[in-house]
Amino acid sequence: MVSTAFSISILRATAEPMDNSEKKDRYSLIDAIRATAVVNMIIYHLCYDIFCVFGIYPAFNCAIGAVIWERAICCTFIIVSGVSLNFTSHGYRRGIILNLCGFAITVISVLLMPSQAIWFGVLNLLGCAMLIGFALRDLLMKISPVVGMAILGTIYALLYGVPYGYIGLFGYRLFSLPDWMYGCKYLAYIGLPSADFVSADYFPIIPWIFLYLFGFFLWRAITEKGWDKGFRRKIPALDFIGRHSLLIYLAHQPLLYGACWLLLHK
Q: Is a pLDDT exceeding 70 seen at residue 14?
């Protein structure tokens, strides 16, 4: 099982702070945070292509620094996407679109780069999380933001190891789960991958939906404290990247791979 955050989703459909991007009270700093993650994603994927795809240093993505870097990028995107659940009025539509995009990426990766095939990548995670979160949003609104953050953060930490066969606190194993739970490869999307399951980008519903919903409560806590006013600050260069994140997402990896192929292919 490989988890490299190979194609972190930055679709504006899941992360844009307002349905109407022209509203004066758009929280532009959220765009800037997303844009910072976009820049990091591009640099990370460049390194991944050079070192892993073209074999210069295949263990790059296993180095502790690369693991921390990759986790920071993906967690930023997932939390920001959870934040956006507070704003959208088209959650079902966006969730379906994201899942369709995820399925399309699966088909393309299987056909063009079978060694880097993506099965239930982050696009499918965010699509499912949007559908589930939007369906539960009215119920979630009844929970105190701080309580919600505490509960979901704890659940996320405890269930982080479920795809790896254990319950614990992140990397600390408290007890192992029975092997029979991982006997069906079709349950990989839930977080119960079989032993032969491999994906270049794997973000199952468990544990990642709990981090997504943590983002939902995080924004509610920010607004409850009145700190949301500071998020209206605009950083022009980052604002542009954040607003055009979909185009960047679609274009960056083919361009990076093509450039690496021209320079490094023998």
A: no
